[in-house]
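To illustrate the input format used throughout this study, we show a single complete record. The first block contains the structure-token representation of the backbone; no residue identities are included at this stage. The design step must infer an amino acid for every position from geometry alone.
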């Protein structure tokens, strides 16, 4: 099989390395020609993973047509809010039976579509050919070959199994799941909760607070997922609690790092600088996830608080006060 990874950020690069290590012929598309040249000549991504050696078998190009022509698997590795525009350019070069795999974890602003839905709407590809790769997958650790597991979600189970083989290495273990909705909601919401954990850490709160945020954030995520038709079991797995714990607890998480700087008193611009210019998906996703929750009348107070801090100018202290001042209620609601 031949794979094209469209996007040469840290996660796209790590996934391209996984594919090559799994024995899949792989080309990575980089928007800037000089980055593609560096990958080809020096076998390193100097902008995002400068100290990680890449396989010599991995080739790079700045031409979307060159990357996509003949690809059996197209991995969409650009940020969620730029996926639609990129897909419009890529679609003419995508094959008639190509599998499309989304790496982006977010809800599109305005449309409130999940990434698999965006892919289907722009390309016209049926959902049976669209998959999602998600889980506790911090890019640097995966690129270093540290043991990790992931989920490949697709409504077509046989296609998911085929993709499972293309990504399976001695250090990267893929599982399959047909609950695409649950996997995407878990991946989108966890970025927002990681921002909240970062904010709490930046303020100086300890493990009790972080455990509370993770647990109540998971409850919010499950409520939204179930309202959209997801399976509750998904949120107990790698795409749910697994991804949530990794993103909320690791200093490698851009969302947690961004939130920590806000908690320390930094401005939005200063917090962005702390992530070295890389996208913290939760900053935009908090707005679209909140809007999706409101559309389905699902309460998500943590997500709402993160949105107010990031976009409405509310202070961290005010957001914390509003959360603690909410009326008490049972932990488990059985309505």
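Output of the design step:
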């Amino acid at each position: 099989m031949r794979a094209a990874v469209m996007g040469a950020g840290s996660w796209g690069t790590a996934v391209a390395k996984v594919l090559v290590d799994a024995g899949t012929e792989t080309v990575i598309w980089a928007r800037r020609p000089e980055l593609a040249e560096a990958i080809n000549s020096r076998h390193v991504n100097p902008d995002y993973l400068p100290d990680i050696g890449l396989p010599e078998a991995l080739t790079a190009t700045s031409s979307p047509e060159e990357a996509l022509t003949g690809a059996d698997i197209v991995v969409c590795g650009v940020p969620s809010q730029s996926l639609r525009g990129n897909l419009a350019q890529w679609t003419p070069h995508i094959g008639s039976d190509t599998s499309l795999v989304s790496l982006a974890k977010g809800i599109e602003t305005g449309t409130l579509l999940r990434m698999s839905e965006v892919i289907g709407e722009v390309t016209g590809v049926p959902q049976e050919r669209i998959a999602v790769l998600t889980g506790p997958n911090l890019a640097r650790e995966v690129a270093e070959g540290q043991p990790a597991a992931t989920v490949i979600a697709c409504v077509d189970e046989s296609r998911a199994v085929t993709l499972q083989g293309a990504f399976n290495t001695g250090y990267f273990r893929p599982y399959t799941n047909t609950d695409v909705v649950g996997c995407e909601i878990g991946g989108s919401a966890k970025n927002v909760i990681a921002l909240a954990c970062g904010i709490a850490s930046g303020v100086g709160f300890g493990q009790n607070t972080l455990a509370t945020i993770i647990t109540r954030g998971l409850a919010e995520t499950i409520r939204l997922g179930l309202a959209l038709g997801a399976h509750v079991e998904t949120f107990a797995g790698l795409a749910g609690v697994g991804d949530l714990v990794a993103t909320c607890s690791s200093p490698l998480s851009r969302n947690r790092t961004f939130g920590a700087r806000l908690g320390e008193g930094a401005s939005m611009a200063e917090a962005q600088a702390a992530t070295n210019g890389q996208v913290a998906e939760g900053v935009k996703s908090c707005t679209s996830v909140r809007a999706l929750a409101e559309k389905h009348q699902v309460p998500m107070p943590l997500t709402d608080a993160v949105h107010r801090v990031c976009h409405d100018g509310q202070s961290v202290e005010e957001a914390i006060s509003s959360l603690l001042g909410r009326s008490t209620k049972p932990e488990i609601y059985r309505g």
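Structural context for interpreting the output: Strands lie at 2-6, 25-29, 59-61, 73-76, 99-102, 130-134, 148-153, 172-177. The chain has a mean pLDDT of 95.
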